[in-house]
Design a protein that fits this description.
This protein is α+β, with helices and mostly antiparallel strands. It is 41% helix and 26% strand.
Amino acid sequence: MGVDTWSSFFNLSSPLEVQETIQIPNNGSAPLLVDVQVFVSNVFNVDILRYTVSSMLLLRLSWLDTRLAWNASAHPRRVRTLPWDSLWTPELTIQEALRVDWQDQSPQAQVYQDGHVELYLDLTTETNCDFELLHFPRDQSDCTLSFYALSNTVMELEFQAHVVNQIVSVKREYVVRDLKTQVLTQQLVPCFQVTLRLQNTALKAVIALLVPGEALLLADLCGGLLPLQATERIAYKVTLLLGYLVFHSSLVQALPGSSSCNPLLIYYFTVLLLLLFISTTETVLLAGLLARDHLRAKSSPSPALRREQQDHEAIGPNPEEATRGVTGSQRSWAEAADHTFFLLYVAGVVCSQFIFIGLWMWATCKSDPAPGEATPHGWQRRL
């Protein structure tokens, strides 16, 4: 490159206008190869309710532009620094990005003597991620960042991408288990994709969700051991049910909903709510029937009971035995029915736990395809 040409780079009156006229370097019949190294330094603010994830990236782009090479005898410097808008650079767009913050609005490119160019781009981005939450809170999801060079075609430009994990902190709910890159084919514009595999550590969700739900269910089973005629049993059951209703409403707000593959915990806690409702309803119905039979026996005793009362009066007054004779038959069938229900209820609770464990271990769900994947769009080649 001549001296006059280099002078034009250092005396730009309108860099934006020059950037518009700068063409991509010519690589003959082959597309220009741009090597991209993606350094992932942080992944934070994983929001499963909004299906978003924020990350900090550093992109190192390098390519060969022979138009910028110079003669070592005329210019002994081995490396020169140029503003990014004074030479051709690939214009990258992240398809899944909701927000992109560039740390340096005017990055500097390093140009070497043989025409190799290196450009570093530091950015923080918030992107959309299709979390797979069927097994929440032990979920694992792949979040992708697709980088497109919309100003060029695949005949002009080709990417060669690599990713480097530079995350040093793991004190968070979601941790990065794997990173990989791939160059997408069958596209009209050059594209490479970075995939982040995020795994939930689950400790917070287990303490906040599973432990209270299991504790309420165990407390309901213990409440079935209280005598049916005890008035405290109804109050105990109703208090548990109301407390679980409050817990269930907060749980629904804490878990995300989607058109497909909702978390199994939503169905699990709904089943627990139905079990508590059935248990409370059984206690109220049997206690009510027992009280009604007791009042009916007091108001109109049967002839057999009347003769039994006369015999007891002839022998001598005994209030406890008289009361036991009046209500003994009613208590016997109610307590037998309550005992049978308690055994069936315990069996149902145990079976529901095993069914949930089986679904947790082997259940799978395939999400519905996105509208953009179902039909070809403008960036995809039509075969």
